[in-house]
Each structure stands twice: as C-alpha cells, then as structure tokens.
Amino acid sequence: xxxxxxxxxxxxxxxxxxxxxxxxxxxxxxxxxxxxxxxxxxxxxxxxxxxxxxxxxxxxxxxxxxxxxxxxxxxxxxxxxxxxxxxxxxxxxxxxxxxxxxxxxxxxxxxxxxxxxxxxxxxxxxxxxxxxxxxxxxxxxxxxxxxxxxxxxxxxxxxxxxxxxxxxxxxxxxxxxxxxxxxxxxxxxxxxxxxxxxxxxxxxxxxxxxxxxxxxxxxxxxxxxxxxxxxxxxxxxxxxxxxxxxxxxxxxxxxxxxxxxxxxxxxxxxxxxxxxxxxxxxxxxxxxxxxxxxxxxxxxxxxxxxxxxxxxxxxxxxxxxxxxxxxxxxxxxxxxxxxxxxxxxxxxxxxxxxxxxxxxxxxxxxxxxxxxxxxxxxxxxxxxxxxxxxxxxxxxxxxxxxxxxxxxxxxxxxxxxxxxxxxxxxxxxxxxxxxxxxxxxxxxxxxxxxxxxxxxxxxxxxxxxxxxxxxxxxxxxxxxxxxxxxxxxxxxxxxxxxxxxxxxxxxxxxxxxxxxxxxxxxxxxxxxxxxxxxxxxxxxxxxxxxxxxxxxxxxxxxxxxxxxxxxxxxxxxxxxxxxxxxxxxxxxxxxxxxxxxxxxxxxxxxxxxxxxxxxxxxxxxxxxxxxxxxxxxxxxxxxxxxxxxxxxxxxxxxxxxxxxxxxxxxxxxxxxxxxxxxxxxxxxxxxxxxxxxxxxxxxxxxxxxxxxxxxxxxxxxxxxxxxxxxxx
Length: 728
Known about the structure:
The protein is mainly α.
C-alpha cells in the first residue's frame, strides 16, 4: 500500500507540471489517444485468449487434474499484470510533454519530471504484485480445505498459477507492443531519415506519432507487465520452494521460509522510495554524470537492502546468515549485469564508439560490428549468473559440499537460488523507474522537435533521450538476468507440482499404487519422495534420449520465437514504409510544412499489424510445453525448460545488447562525431539501428517472458502430464 500511495503521489506531482504550449498539448493528445486505442484493442484480443484458457483449466479441475482455485488465480494474475501496464502507460503519455516543457527551465527539472513519472510505473508494479500475493495468501489460508501439514505447500503451489496469468498477459503485451513500436520506428527512420533526409521526430513524417505511441505501448506497458510477472514469479517460486524445503523441519520454519521473500520485497519497496528522492543532476551534465545521477539512487537502495538482508542472521533457527548472503549475491549479480550492459551499449564507452566508427565503410560493417559486439557481450552476464547460482546454492547449505547433491541439500540450495532472484528484484521499484524513464524522455524529445522548441531545449531533451537509451538497455539486461534465476526456481517448483499432481491422482482414481516412470509407488512413498527421487523415477539424465529431445525443442523454441517476431516486425514495417511513401507522394505540401500528414492512418496500420502478428508466437509458447508433456512426459518437459532457459537467456542478452549498441552508435554520430547528422556515416548507422530495433525492443525482451511462461505452463499442466503421456 505504501508503494501504491507513493505512486499516486508522484503521479499527482507530475500532473501539476505545466504541459506547455497548445502545440505541445495537441501532440501529447495524439499520442495519448493512439496509445489508449491500441491498448483497448489488445485487451479485447487477450481477453478472448484468457477466457479460453480459463475454460481449459476449469475442465482440468473438474476431472481432478488441477485444483479448483487455478482458473481464478490465473485470471487475477493476468488482470493485475495488465493493470500495472495500463497505469504505467497512462502516466507516461501525460508525462512526455511536461518533461519537454520542464527541460525549458533546466536539465535537472526535466530529469526529475521524467524519472519520477517512471517511478509511478516501478512502484505500481511492486505495489500491485505484493497486494495480489497478500490477498491470495489470505484467501487460501482461510478457505483452503487441506490438512495443516500440507496446507502451506498447497497454498504456495496454488499461488504459483496466478504467475501463468501474469506471464501470458506479459507476453502478449511485450510481443504486441514490440511489433507495434518497431513497425512505426522502422517506417519512420527508413523513409524519413534515409530517403527524405528529414530529422528524427520531424512533424512532416507521417509515422512520427505512431513511433511515439509505440514507445509507450512497447517500452512502458510491455516492460511493466513483463517485470510484474518476474517480480511476482520470483517471490511465489521461492515461497513454494521454501514450503517444500522446510516441510520436514517444523511449521514455524516453513512459515519463515515462505514469508522471507515477501519481507525482502517489502523492505525493497521502502528503500526504492528513498532512492527515488536521491536522483538529481546539474545543468550541462555529460552522459557519465547523468548515468551517475540515476546510479546513485539505484546503488544506495541496493546497498541498504543488502544491509537489511544480512540482519536475517539474527533469526534463531536455521541457516539465515547463509540465506541472507543469497540475497546479497542476487543484488550483486544484478548490479554487475547492469554495469556490463551499460559498458557495451552506452556511447560513452569504446565498444559502441567502435560500432559508430565502422560506419565509415557503410552499413554492412556497422551490422557486422554490432553482431560481434552483441555476441561478445554475452560473456559477462552468463558468467555472472553462473557464479550467482553456485554461490546462492552453497550459501543456503552453509558451504557444506558433502550434502550438495543430497535431498536436503538440493532443497535448501534451490531455495537459496530463489532468494537470490528475489534479492535481484527487491529494488525493482527504482530499477524499473530508470527503465520507464527512457520512453518518457524519448517522447519528450519528439514533442520538443515537433513543437519547434529552441536548440537549447532540444539539446537537453537529446541528453535525456540518450540517457534513456542506455537505461532501457540496462533495464533489459536486468530483466533477462532476473528471468534466468526466476526460471531456474520455477524449474524446481515444477517437480513439487508433479508430486502434488501424483497425489491428486490417488484421490481421483482410488488406486493403491501409481506407476511413476518405471517404478510402482504408494501414496506414502510419493509423499515422502524428494526432488532427487523424482529425477531418478523419471530418469532425468543426459543419457535419456527423451531429455535430450526436450533440450533440443527448448533451444529451438528460442530461435523459432525470435524468427517469428522478427518477421512479424518486418511485415508490419513494410506496410508502414509503403504508407509513408504514399503520403509523401500524394499529399501535396507535406515536405514544405504546408499540409499535415495523416498520422491516424499510420497509427491504425501499426495497431492492426501488431494485433494480427502477435497471436502465433504467443500461442506457440503456451501450446508447446503442454504438447511436449503429453508426448514425452515429465523428462521431456524438464529437457524443454532447460533448453529454453539456456538458449533463451544467451540469445536475449545478445539481441538486447547488439540492438542497444546500434541505437547509441547512431546517437553518437548525431552528436557531431564522424560527420554528424545527414552524413553517409549517419545513414549507415540508421540502417544498423533499424536492424537493431526488433532485436532490442521486440524479440530480445520477449525471450525472458518466453522462458518463464513455458515454466509456468508446465507447472499448470503438471496434472495432465503425470496422468497421461505417450512416451513418458
């Protein structure tokens, strides 16, 4: 409630700012109407999908393949995820003109308006997630008709299913928003900048309003829904692992393990609010100083949450010092990934400057250089996540390697990994604020350009925009890193759901034994089985061809999904390019500024294209895990999730960083380097940026949702998987 209260406070504070001239207000209104029209249409399509899926889950519950709460939990997860994106986008569309107008006063004023508007998104996401989790815990605690011994496990695994609703909504928001924004962006850049030679966000460009609308629907609504799902998913998966890992100890320890991730998240809210108030800068600040201003707020929040996390060692029972260190490990991993992303994508540093320099020999070398940079940039995040996984695991078992692969050690170690994911996301309130700030600053720059504000104002908004490109890239790296840890925690939670699904079969079938893999087991034996036991029962080893097939399918899914979304952007962009060319050709006086382009037509093309193209890749992510379970069983699904996680994580980092570097290489040249705006070097980097647009804003960011959604679908479909599979 504190998070939502401060979100409302910052929103009201932003609304009190002056929106500027009549022209600025008119442009902002165009963007606002376009964004809301798109979101309304998207929610119509997504609602149909949700109704169908809820009906499927209801049928499964009727036949005893799932518990009766799942359809309702699924719907509320999707509702809150969509609500988080809606509030964030509504704020962003009101904030852009106010940021541009504030930049007339000073750089610091513009930064403060944009950043605190972004904070509305950050605090709304964490506030709604914690509210949803709290409500469901209270409902299930009071209404669930389960024995005391199994009650906490039942509650936490049931709550996990509302994560699927959040994941499904997030994927549609990310994919649809990404296709929308990049279709408009590519059309605006290729025809406006390269062919017509007019500046970015020039009012003569018919696609410029659609481009600004796209920043909001993709990078605000899409990112908000994405990180809502990561945040809630990490807390819920860790709570479920805690309930399982400490079930054999006592109920008090079980409750502490469940509430620990929620308390860490709650403390993170308070410290994020403190960090938000620390963000400020001075007039004439360069890129490093602006990055330092944002970094101050994030870093102070992270250090304080680490200090508070260490206080868990005061708790009298269990290895709470080790668990506290897992929190610190997650935080440090998040900071390292963020810094690495900044290094590879900010034009303050050499990697992106080298991409810009390669433009002297044309667009081909810009693309080659960017691809190479993206591939190299995967090393630090992958090594960091690997180190975080092993350190969090060992911390949770007190570095006792002797029990590392025992049933007890595996349970505690996986709980430590989940806590590390919660630690990484604990300061999401301010981390997401730095990300949502980006599209607000970008729209502010567009508004300043279209409204004809002075050069000094445009210089300030350009500085804020360039900073926003880097924070957006950093935010994507952070989202991908947190997705890897969360997906690993969900993978472990899947086994617990398999166990519950098997126990449910005893109740629905009335049998004495059930065949698990190749072993006949009684209800008592299944209830007493550990994580490692199920690995043995289902023969989950690298020598099992079914596991390997699953790994290959999961790896393929990452590339197939990217290919589908990239082609979707390409097709939508072609329609936009043709429309912009048509308007330049047929509407007399556009280039002279005597006639107004048909902005609404371009908005309509992007909206229609995004709605049509988002369905196939999004539905594929939902269908494949269920189908894999029905054909290959539990072993195949585990292989699928491992393959998707490994390939998806590395591919997402590569795409996000390559796209960010191409974008900022263009910005570097626009600042007057290597010939400046309008030069052949500039045109070469515009082509690179155009290739990078779907990399960093559509396919790359959607991958982190894909790997979590496949895990969530597997968890929800676990009851069906254990009751029927052709080869499992």
